C-alpha cells in the first residue's frame, strides 16, 4: 500500500474539526431561533444567508489564494469564521445572526474549496479523497449527535463550534503538507453548461433546493410537534446515514446502466417517500426518523449523479471548471430552498413535502424526453 502523503493527517484533522463545528452550528441556530420566537422566514434566512456567503466564496476564493497563498488564506478565513461564530453568542437579534451567517458561509465556502483543491492536488482523487469524504460524514454525524450533550442553553453551543473552527485553522497552520500551485481564477460559463447538459444543470439546482430546505428547516420539525431533542438529532443523523449508504452504490450503478436511468429511479423513489409525509400527520417519532433516513437515500445521491451526468455530456471541458459551475448552481438552490420552504412550513410538514415532491417530479419529467432523444 502506498504511504499517505506527508501532512495529510493534519489536513484531515482540519476537515473533521471544521465540519463538526459548522454542522453543530447549523443545527443549533434554527432550534434556538424557534425557541426564542423567531419567524419562519428568519429561520430560513439563517440557512440561506450561509448559502449566499458560500456562493460568493465560490466566485472569489481563487483571488484570495492568489494574493496570500493557500495556508495563509485558510488561516485567515478560519479565524474570521471562528470569531463570527463566537459573536453569535453576543448578538441575539435575527438581523445580527443572519449577517454573521453570511460571513460564516463565505468563510466555509473558501475553506472547503482550499481543502478540496489542496487534497486533490497533493493526493489525487482516489483513496485519499474517499477518506476525506468518510471523515466529512463522520464529523457531520458526531456534530449532529453531540447536540444532546452540549444542549442549547448559554453560550456553549456557540463557543464550541467557534473553538473547533479555530483549531481547524491551527491544524493547517502547523501542518507540513506542501501547498499546491495557485489555481487560475474561476469564470463560470453557466449558459454553456445549461445548453449542453440541461439535466445535469437542472438536477444540481434541484439538489440544492431539496438539501437546503431539509438542512435549514429539518432541525425545527421536531420542535414544531413538541418532540424531544433526542428524536430531533436522531432524525437528522438518520438522514445523513441514508445518504452515506446510497451515494456510492448509486454512483456505481449509474456508470453501468446509465446515470439518467438511475436518476429517474431515484426521483421516483423520492416521490413515494414523500407520500406519507404529505398524507400522515403527525408522524410518530419512529416513523419520522425512518422516513428521514429513507429520504436521505434519495436526497444526497441526486447531486452526485448530476455531476457525473454533466461531465459525461461535456467530455471536452475541464472537470474542474464544470465542478465549479455545478457547485455554484447547487449553492444557488440552497439559497432559495430554505426561503421557499420557510413560507410553506408555517402550514405544516405536509405542505413542505408536497412542494419537495413537486420539485422532484419536475426533474423526473425533464429526464423523459432527454432519454427518448438519446441525449
Structural commentary:
With 375 residues, this protein is an all-alpha fold. The protein folds into 2 domains: 8-174, Up-down Bundle (Growth Hormone, Chain: A), CATH 1.20.1250.20; 190-372, Up-down Bundle (Growth Hormone, Chain: A), CATH 1.20.1250. It is 82% helix and 0% strand. It contains 16 helices and no strands. The protein has helices spanning 8-35, 40-68, 70-87, 94-123, 127-145, 147-150, 156-174, 190-196, 198-217, 221-224, 229-257, 259-279, 285-299, 301-313, 319-345, 349-372. α3 runs antiparallel to α4 (94-123) and α9 (198-217) runs antiparallel to α14. The radius of gyration is 20 Å and the shape is globular. The model has no long low-confidence stretch (mean pLDDT 84).
Amino acid at each position: 500500500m502506498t504511504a499517505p502523503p506527508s501532512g495529510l493527517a493534519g489536513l484531515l484533522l482540519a476537515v473533521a474539526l471544521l465540519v463538526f463545528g459548522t454542522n453543530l452550528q447549523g443545527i443549533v441556530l434554527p432550534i434556538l431561533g424557534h425557541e426564542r420566537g423567531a419567524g419562519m422566514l428568519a429561520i430560513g434566512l439563517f440557512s440561506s444567508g450561509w448559502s449566499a456567503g458560500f456562493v460568493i466564496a465560490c466566485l472569489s476564493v481563487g483571488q484570495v489564494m492568489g494574493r496570500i497563498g493557500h495556508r495563509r488564506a485558510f488561516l485567515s478565513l478560519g479565524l474570521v469564521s471562528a470569531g463570527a461564530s463566537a459573536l453569535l453568542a453576543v448578538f441575539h437579534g435575527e438581523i445580527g445572526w443572519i449577517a454573521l451567517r453570511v460571513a460564516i458561509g463565505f468563510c466555509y465556502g473558501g475553506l472547503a474549496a482550499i481543502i478540496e483543491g489542496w487534497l486533490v492536488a497533493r493526493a489525487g482523487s482516489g483513496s485519499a479523497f474517499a477518506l476525506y469524504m468518510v471523515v466529512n460524514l463522520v464529523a457531520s454525524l458526531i456534530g449532529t449527535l453531540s447536540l444532546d450533550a452540549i444542549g442549547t442553553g448559554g453560550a456553549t453551543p456557540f463557543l464550541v463550534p467557534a473553538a473547533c473552527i479555530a483549531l481547524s485553522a491551527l491544524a493547517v497552520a502547523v501542518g507540513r503538507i506542501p501547498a499546491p500551485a495557485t489555481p487560475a481564477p474561476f469564470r463560470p460559463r453557466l449558459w454553456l453548461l445549461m445548453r449542453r447538459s440541461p439535466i445535469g444543470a437542472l438536477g444540481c439546482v434541484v439538489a440544492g433546493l431539496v438539501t437546503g430546505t431539509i438542512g435549514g428547516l429539518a432541525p425545527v420539525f421536531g420542535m414544531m410537534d413538541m418532540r424531544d431533542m433526542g428524536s430531533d438529532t436522531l432524525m437528522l443523523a438518520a438522514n445523513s446515514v441514508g445518504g452515506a449508504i446510497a451515494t456510492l452504490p448509486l454512483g456505481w450503478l449509474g456508470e453501468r446502466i446509465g446515470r439518467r436511468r438511475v436518476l429517474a429511479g431515484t426521483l421516483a423513489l423520492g416521490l413515494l417517500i414523500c407520500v406519507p409525509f404529505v398524507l400522515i400527520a403527525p408522524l410518530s417519532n419512529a416513523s419520522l426518523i425512518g422516513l428521514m433516513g429513507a429520504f436521505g437515500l434519495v436526497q444526497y445521491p441526486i447531486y452526485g449523479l448530476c455531476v457525473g451526468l454533466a461531465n459525461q455530456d461535456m467530455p471536452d471541458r475541464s472537470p474542474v471548471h464544470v465542478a465549479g459551475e455545478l457547485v455554484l448552481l447547487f449553492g444557488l438552490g440552497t439559497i432559495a430552498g430554505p426561503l421557499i420552504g420557510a413560507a410553506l412550513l408555517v402550514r405544516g410538514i405536509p405542505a413542505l413535502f408536497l412542494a419537495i415532491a413537486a420539485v422532484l417530479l419536475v426533474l423526473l419529467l425533464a429526464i423523459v424526453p432527454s432519454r427518448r432523444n438519446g441525449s
